[in-house]
Amino acid sequence: MTVIEFPTSDKATGDELREQVREAARRGREAAAELAQATRGAKDALLQDMADELVKRAPEVLEANEQDVAAARESGMTEALIDRLSLSTGRVEAMADGLRTVSGLPDPVGEVLRGQVLPNGVQLRQVRVPLGVVGIVYEGRPNVTVDAAGLTLKSGNAVLLRGSSSAENSNTALVWILRDVVARHGLPMDAVQLLPCHDRASVHHLITARGLVDVVIPRGGAGLISAVVEQSTVPAIETGVGNCHVYVDASADVDMALRILLNSKARRPSVCNSAETFLVHADIAEEFLPRAIAELGEAGVTVHGDERVVGAGGSHVVPATDEDWDVEYLSLDVAAAVVESLPAAVEHIREHGSGHTEAIVTSDFRAAQQFTAQVDAAAVMVNASTAFTDGGEFGMGAEIGISTQKLHARGPMGLPELTSTKWLAYGDGHVRPGSAPVKPGS
Amino acid sequence: MTVIEFPTSDKATGDELREQVREAARRGREAAAELAQATRGAKDALLQDMADELVKRAPEVLEANEQDVAAARESGMTEALIDRLSLSTGRVEAMADGLRTVSGLPDPVGEVLRGQVLPNGVQLRQVRVPLGVVGIVYEGRPNVTVDAAGLTLKSGNAVLLRGSSSAENSNTALVWILRDVVARHGLPMDAVQLLPCHDRASVHHLITARGLVDVVIPRGGAGLISAVVEQSTVPAIETGVGNCHVYVDASADVDMALRILLNSKARRPSVCNSAETFLVHADIAEEFLPRAIAELGEAGVTVHGDERVVGAGGSHVVPATDEDWDVEYLSLDVAAAVVESLPAAVEHIREHGSGHTEAIVTSDFRAAQQFTAQVDAAAVMVNASTAFTDGGEFGMGAEIGISTQKLHARGPMGLPELTSTKWLAYGDGHVRPGSAPVKPGS
């Protein structure tokens, strides 16, 4: 086994850093052209080998990770963030399993999406092709490094990884191993590159490398995502900010509504598909609220309620402020309001929702129809928890993120969402009839 | 018939103009929510009536257009641009026919794209929904006003039209008529709005109205498109810049290659799918070049050739400069080079192409396979003219533009490309198993 030297960052700044990022993108572009031609067999074998190698070389990864964790502790990082940063043998094995899962998924590249023979005899078909060079900007979790590399490589793309400086040693060790395996398989090592992370400017250089980078996907908190999306001149996909609602309709089965609300809120409050607000129809509020408040209290949830919710009592119920309707808590907090009607619930969601996941609990067919038609979100649930919005749950095998925008992909993004398309037209000397040569401008 | 007053621009500037544009977007958003629920029947009837009304009120439109044309002449506009601006009874009828065509196309909204029952019994399906509010930024042609309105309304979207100030009277007359018909059909008039065009700042306000506008599509020259795409914080779709190539392979049938080159170049040089460069394999150059140069000369085309092309002679052959390989002439000019191999042609296209349409003329199966696999463009033609890249030719019925980017849509964009998707999940009290409530950050 040859260990390939991974270029160490020389802490460049200013124009030099910009040129480093652009040069990485150019090398990524070359690698992407080669990778686009790789067969599914070659890509699957690559991912399997990457998984094996990660497990084999886990000690290297853990040693690098210990340095990051020690530095993080010294800098006073919170325990929650340190937990996200920390790796263990089990977590490295989970990354390897992720690669094996992706290896087993169908290859989207080459899939024929539609096609026909045109009236003139030209054979036309639209096929999936890789996007090219994909930039991923993310925060402390080192597992994103491996997940993102697996998904982008499988879909025939080159990836530029821009992780957090707090995980620099871990990410460098991981990428070193992955590149090593890529090279051993005779594929271009620059299909996986880690960008310098010592200076925030490298993010800016990445997201403005229009023409060199085909898409940027930010993964992290709301601040990171909106900064990337707003400053990017490279097409960006907005992911993962979820101000999700559970609406309990007048006709709801109260037991079912309680179960769905509790699961949506408290199953894993730190993830984007967890509920942040519940709305309850006035006709059922008197029956529903006391039980909901009690059960949420038992689960440790603080309720930020409007006047009528506060009126229903409970020591863990506090008055909601205007901000509570818009905030993504990601914690054991929930905003709650009583609404007069289903249209009022839809209106509240239209005003405050982030277009991620919205749920209705109802027994009324027409209410379900209205809610699903009128609520504009990536996913709308009827009598099911908001927690189901997830690539794994949707049967995609793995996801690179959950898009909350409307272009290109909406909801969980799996391998097909990491591709573009190309039209192929086969003729036999076909030309398009029409005017004789005409002057420009006509 | 009630004539609805169309709000006249009061030539606002600065913050006031910004607020005007944002208020239009907000009204568009309200209208879009209503329009998203309109049935295909309602939308088709609307478009049919718009067509009839345009023909009936053509004199109003022509009168307004005469004012624009007179002002344009006075300002010294070129005849080519005046021709683009000018309307006639025939051109108004053509717009009406366009609306009737779109009326007859299938409605993309509601189409089920995929679906399954999850292992837990939840019924999942992905359906097409309108994008919401679509902004169109365009230049002098008033027919874009009607075409864009027809396509966006049919796909359930509201449209904000930002046309050229040179066409202000024509566009106002057209939009007045369209809004009038929308109102008569009981639909929200603000589904079609014309933005102020007296100040370039209105474009800026439109393309930065993130959260209010869902997508911006620029239609026009390369300068307009790149300005919109680079400055936009609203997702934008890059359209229509075409530096298209015809590659004549060593194995090409020379007669076929000449026919395809002439058609690709000279059929309509002012449109984006026309060829701007041809590349010829060295092995066939001696046979092909003299005939190609002669035929291009007869068609009035100036050839900007590399050394070997210039060496083949002809009074209309001039030496190519470095810029010639990258320019979109949109005129009776073509760049030409001899290449040593198919990979050299692919490399030239990778360096200079704009990702629109690339063609190979070949009799060799493997050459066709290599070219289609390795050339990265919206459309790749084998033995067919570049002129076929067109929504009408591809059987889409109508197009809003030709996307040259890789996200969301690539190539001609018809009605489905003006939609997003939504996941619907129907359960019966389903919750997601998993950990007991965990602390945030874990």
Automatic annotation (TrEMBL), chains A, B:
<dbReference type="InterPro" id="IPR016163">
    <property type="entry name" value="Ald_DH_C"/>
</dbReference>
<dbReference type="Pfam" id="PF00171">
    <property type="entry name" value="Aldedh"/>
</dbReference>
<comment type="function">
    <text>Catalyzes the NADPH-dependent reduction of L-glutamate 5-phosphate into L-glutamate 5-semialdehyde and phosphate. The product spontaneously undergoes cyclization to form 1-pyrroline-5-carboxylate.</text>
</comment>
<comment type="similarity">
    <text>Belongs to the gamma-glutamyl phosphate reductase family.</text>
</comment>
<dbReference type="InterPro" id="IPR016162">
    <property type="entry name" value="Ald_DH_N"/>
</dbReference>
<dbReference type="GO" id="GO:0004350">
    <property type="term" value="F:glutamate-5-semialdehyde dehydrogenase activity"/>
</dbReference>
<keyword id="KW-0963">Cytoplasm</keyword>
<dbReference type="InterPro" id="IPR020593">
    <property type="entry name" value="G-glutamylP_reductase_CS"/>
</dbReference>
<protein>
    <recommendedName>
        <fullName>Gamma-glutamyl phosphate reductase</fullName>
        <ecNumber>1.2.1.41</ecNumber>
    </recommendedName>
</protein>
<dbReference type="InterPro" id="IPR012134">
    <property type="entry name" value="Glu-5-SA_DH"/>
</dbReference>
<keyword id="KW-0560">Oxidoreductase</keyword>
<keyword id="KW-0521">NADP</keyword>
<dbReference type="InterPro" id="IPR016161">
    <property type="entry name" value="Ald_DH/histidinol_DH"/>
</dbReference>
<dbReference type="InterPro" id="IPR000965">
    <property type="entry name" value="GPR_dom"/>
</dbReference>
<keyword id="KW-0641">Proline biosynthesis</keyword>
<comment type="pathway">
    <text>Amino-acid biosynthesis; L-proline biosynthesis; L-glutamate 5-semialdehyde from L-glutamate: step 2/2.</text>
</comment>
<dbReference type="InterPro" id="IPR015590">
    <property type="entry name" value="Aldehyde_DH_dom"/>
</dbReference>
<keyword id="KW-0028">Amino-acid biosynthesis</keyword>
<feature type="domain" description="Aldehyde dehydrogenase">
    <location>
        <begin position="18"/>
        <end position="298"/>
    </location>
</feature>
